[in-house]
Amino acid sequence: MIFKSKNNGVKSPEEKSDTSRLLSGKAKNKERLLLILSGILLGVSFPPVPFPFTLLMFVGLIPYLKIIEQKERLLDINRSTYLMAFVFSAITIYWVGSWQKETDPFLMISGGLLLFVNPAQLLIPSTLYYFTKKLFKRNIALYVFPLFWVTYEYITMITEIRFPWMTLGSGLALFNDFIQAADIFGSLGLSLIVLYINIFLYKAYVHYKISKKKFYINFSTGVLIFVAVLIYGFVRKSSYDMPEKKIRVGLIQPNINPWDKWAIGDLNSFLNLYFDLSQKAVEDGAELLIWPETALPVYLMSGGHQSIVDSIYRFLEQKNIYLLTGMPDLQYHIKDNHPDDAKYGEEGDFYYSTYNAVMLLSPHTRELQRYGKSKLVPFGEKVPYADKIPFLGSLIKWGVGLTGWNVGRDTTVFSMPFPEANNHSIIYSEKDSIHINGLVCYESVFPDFVAQFVAKGAEMIAVVTNDSWYGKLSGPYQHKEYAALRAVENRRSVVRAANGGISCIINPLGITVIESEMFEKTFMVGDVALENEKTFFTSNPLIVPILSSVFSMWIAGIFILKKIKTKFNL
C-alpha cells in the first residue's frame, strides 16, 4: 500500500524549516569538529610530545583558517577562535593546576581559571583580523593575520598577567634543525614563519580544484619557506665552531619535596644534602657549583642564620670553588631612601624588600653578588596590580610562603675569575673572568629578557628552578625544552639546576648534552662552552614583535577612526 502526501510531495513551510535547521545543525557540528581538530593539532605539536608530531604545527591552523574565512560577524569569528584556543590551551597547559594531593587549593583554582581565561587572549588577533576584513579585501586580512597573532604573543609577555607559554615558536623546541633560525628572528619570528606556512598551505588547499596555477604558487611558497629555514639550520649547525673557552659546571639536584620544604624543618639536614652532592661534583672536577631555586627556605643573608652562612663559606673555601645559588633574599632600606615598592615593618618601623633571588658566593671574599627575579609568576609570586589595588594582595596568598616577592630592578650579570687547572687544583685567573647571568625559573621563557643579559656580556645562561610543583605532568618537560630556544637565539650554553628535575646542560646549538630524570636526587658535571659573540637576535630582539604590534595598532586605529566618522557623519 502506498501513502501519498496530501501536499503531493511538496514540503510544507514547517517541514522546510525543520530540514533547514537539520542542515544548519550538521554544518555547525562540522565547524566545531574542524575547530577542535585545529586545537588538537596545535596542542600535540608541543613538547613533551615527541618530535615528529611537531610537524603538525605547520598544518594545524588550516581547519581553523577555513572556518574563520567563512565568517562575517565578529561574534562568529571570536566564538570559533575561542573554541579552537580552548582545546589548544587545555592540551598544552592543563598542568598549571598541578592536580596532586599536596597541591595548594589556590594553585588548583588558578590553574582551572587559566584554562578558560588564556584562550580569551587569542581573541586579539581574531578581532584584528575582522577589522582588516572590513577595511580591506579578504585576502589581505588573511595574509596579515600572522602579524596579529605575533602581537598577541608579545602581549602575553609584557602585561602583569604574563604567561607566554603557548607561543608557536616555543612549540618548535624539539625541531632542532628548524629552530636554528632563531639566532636571527627569535622564537616570535619562528611563530611568524609557522603562521605563514599555514596560510600558504591553506590557500593551496582552497585553490586545489579551482585554479591549479594558484595552487602551485601557494603550495610552492609554503614549502619553499619551510625548506629555506631548514637549509639555514643545516648550514648553521655544520659551520658553527664550538668555543674553546669552557668551564666545568656541577649541577646539584637535591629533590626536596617542595610542599614540605617551606615548613622549615632542620636546615642543617638540607645543607648536609647539598654538601654531600656538591662534594661529589667537586671530586668530578666541577669548577662552579649551581644549586637550584630557593635552595634553602630562609632569608639566608638577613643576619639570622649566620652559622649556616659560615658553613657554606667554609665549604667553598676548603674546596676553592664558586657557588651560584637560588636563595630568598631580604634587603633592608634606609627609612628616608627606599624603593617605591618596599614593604613597611610596623613593629620595627623599617622598610624592606624580599626577592626570589640568585646569589654568587666566592671562596675568596664574602662580598656578595645578587640578582632579584624580575619576571614574577602571576598569582604565584606576585598578585597582578596589587601595588595599585592593595587589597588584592591580602585576598590571594599561597600556603607555601611564596606570594609577595618584590620585583627585581636590574638585569645583573655575575662576574668570577676564570678557573685554570694547575697540578690537580684550581687557580683563578686575575687576568681573565667569566660573566654569567642567573635566571629564576620561568624567566627563561622570555626571549627579549634573556637577550638583555647576553647583550650585557653574559657568556653562558644559568637557570635555577623548581618545577617539582607539577610532578611528571607536561610543564617541567616543556620548561626544559623551551630553554633550547634561548640557547639558539643567543648562541649561549644554557645550564639548568632544578630542585627535582630537569637539570641539564644545553649547548649553543640547542642540543641537550646531559640531563637528569625527574624526581632524582643527583648531581651532574659537564663542560660548558663560553661564548662572547652576539647574534643578530641578541642585538635586535624586538624587531619582529614591535613591527607586528605597530601594524596591529595601525589597523585598530584606522578601524576605530572609521567607526567614529560613520557615527558622527564626519
Write structural notes for this entry:
This protein has 570 residues and is α/β, with parallel strands linked by helices. It folds into two domains: 14-239 and 545-567, no CATH class; 246-538, Carbon-nitrogen hydrolase (Nitrilase/N-carbamoyl-D-aminoacid amidohydrolase, 4-Layer Sandwich). Helix content is 46%, strand content 17%. It has helices spanning 13-43, 62-70, 74-93, 105-117, 123-135, 138-158, 168-171, 176-179, 182-207, 212-239, 258-261, 267-283, 306-319, 391-395, 447-455, 474-490, 536-539, 543-567, and strands spanning 246-253, 288-291, 322-333, 343-345, 350-361, 369-372, 413-422, 425-440, 460-465, 493-498, 504-506, 512-515, 522-529. The strands form two sheets. Strands 1, 2, 3, 4, 5, 6 and 13 form a seven-stranded mixed sheet that branches. Strands 7-8-9-10-11-12 form a six-stranded mixed sheet, covered by helices on one side. It is globular, with a radius of gyration of 27 Å.
What keyword list fits this structure?
single chain; 570 residues; alpha/beta; Nitrilase/N-carbamoyl-D-aminoacid amidohydrolase; 2 domains; 7-stranded mixed beta sheet; 6-stranded mixed beta sheet; 18 helices; 46% helix
Short précis:
It contains 18 helices and 13 strands. With 570 residues, it is of the alpha/beta class. The strands form two sheets. Strands 1, 2, 3, 4, 5, 6 and 13 form a seven-stranded mixed sheet that branches. A six-stranded mixed sheet has the order 7-8-9-10-11-12, covered by helices on one side.
